[in-house]
Every structure is written in structure tokens, then in C-alpha cells.
């Protein structure tokens, strides 16, 4: 049985261990969504992860609605990512870019008042983070069939820019209530065309995006993230297994490098649900590496998931935020730093690059 600290092959990427860094939005880019030098320090500090999955990164201006989040749709953005990937590689690490279209949770203030796009004319619950404070979400307009080709081009351009920027691959963000997830689930997808209704139609955009991204990066450098159980930002499904198991099967047929699943449980600390985890059923149809995420806080929890045969690796989120040397801490069973929520999305080094490594904390 593999150990959490054993190497693993993730498509074309050789990861030194099975402790992956999950994508974590941190808001340290510029207002033009250009990465900053501070981000190179942050990611390099965490290069001991078997693989870093970058913070969610916009594929287009239309699709990015988070203050100071980075993008990959301009040459300037791609060039500014180069020092980040170089710093990670110099420290011995691997990093892929998570590419992102937020769909209906993009507030109109990010796009000169234009309504966001989604599967259908729906509105996300709650309020959006914007440059002018928390604002109620706008009602989305349905994505037109004529816009699908342009959307696929956006993903292809972001992928091309990611590879040019030195990333080892890309992960398509198809989870957490964002655009692709809005099409996957019947709670938000009310379409009656080829992208709505039956599960095979709701899977269509995920499959098309993945095929297009894989055509640019290579399937062995393409990954996907799904959140197949329970509500996420108001996006849910009446029968999760009926859509997510076929979705995983379609991704297996494309031959992606790995699939990551964010699956909170009834006691989740950042989202909770009684909807059963779909990973055991997905494991039956997806035989490439399967990575699990959500509320893994110890090596013992992670190893148990690997021992079960469902997971091949574990993506740690908030624990990596506050512990730059997380693999070493887990292996030594050392205490973990606690993260400070007030600095999750703030600007500057505080709560970002100033969490001590184990040696410094011990000293």
C-alpha cells in the first residue's frame, strides 16, 4: 500500500510525495489581475508539496470576479507568472495553474456593469466580494450557444499562456459553484438545449473544455477539480451520482492526468453537507490518480484515505496556507501553525509569507 510520502506519477508530472497543495485564493495580485513578486516567495516557500495547484486564475475578464485575483488572459499576466513558476522550480517543486471562469458569481462591477453569464438566468445567494465592498449578486444571463466557441477559445488561450509561463500543467476548475459546475447541476442548469436536461447534456461543456485544454497542454498535463456532493454557492443537484459518475467516466476517456474531488462532510469546517461522498463510485470509473480534498488535517486522516483505495493523494488547503513546510510537519507529527482568517485575502506579506517553517518555529 502506498505511503503518503511516497512519490506518485500524475500524468507527465512526477510528484515527490502525495501531499498536494490545494488551490487557495489569496488576493495578492494587482487590480489588473497581474501576479506580483510576493507571490513568487509564497509559492516557493511551499515547494515541498508533491504538487502545488495554484490559486484559481481567471481565463478572461468576463470570468474573473474576485478582487486582486490573478489572470492568464494577457501577455502581461503570463509574463508576471514566470518568476513564480521559476521560483517553485528552483526550490525543487512542481506547480500547475488552476484556470477559472466564475460564471454567475462575477459581480457586474468587474465588467463595466455587464451581467454575468451562467447556464441559466439565475442569481447566486449571498453577496459578492468586490472592490466597492460586499454587493448582492446580479442575475446572470444564459450563455448563448453562439458564445461556446469563444468560451473554449478563452480556456485554450489561458492554457497556452500557462504553459508559456512555465507551469507544469493546468487544472480546470469545474467545482465550487463556478461556471462549469453551474452547467453540471440541475439546480442551476434549467436549459432545454444541448447543454441542459439529461446528465449527458449537462456534462457536455465540461467535456468540451477538457478536450480543448488537453489539445493545448496534453491530456497528461491536464487535471480537473469537481465538487460532487452537496450545495456550493447555491449550486446543487437532485441526484449527484447521475451526473458526476458519468462526468468522471468522460474525463477518464479523455485520459486526464488526475481528478481532484472536493468533498465536505456533515461536519465540514468550510461548507458541510449530508449528501454522500461520490468518490467511492467515481473510483470505479476513474482509474487514473484520484486526489481527495476537504478537511484533511493530519497524516493519519490522509493515509487512511489512501489505504482505503479510494484516494491516491490528498490535497491540503488551509493547513498549507499557514504551514509552508507542511509535508515535513506531517511526517514529523509536529504541531501545525494556525491560520489567521483576517489575512486570507488581505494585501501584503502579513498572513501570507510570514508563517514560520518548523525549524524557525522550534528555534
Detailed description of the structure:
With 363 residues, the protein is an alpha/beta fold. It is 31% helix and 14% strand. The strands form four sheets. It has an eight-stranded parallel β-sheet. It has a two-stranded antiparallel sheet with strand order 1-2. Helix 1 (37-45) runs parallel beside helix 2. The longest helix is centred in the middle third of the chain and has 17 residues, at 148-164. The mean pLDDT is 95.
**Side-by-side strand order of the widest sheet:** 3-14-13-12-11-10-5-4
Q: Into which percentage range does the β-strand content fall?
A: 5-15%
* Share of helical residues: 25-40%
The number of strands is 14
Low-confidence stretches: none
- Major β-sheet profile: 8 strands, parallel
Spatial extent as radius of gyration = 19 Å
- SSE string, helices as H and strands as E: EEEHEHEEEEEHEHHHEHEHEHEHHH
The overall pLDDT average reads 95
Helix count from the secondary structure assignment: 12
Oligomeric state of the chains in view: single chain
Shape: globular
Structural class: alpha/beta
Give the N-terminus to C-terminus distance in angstroms. 36 Å
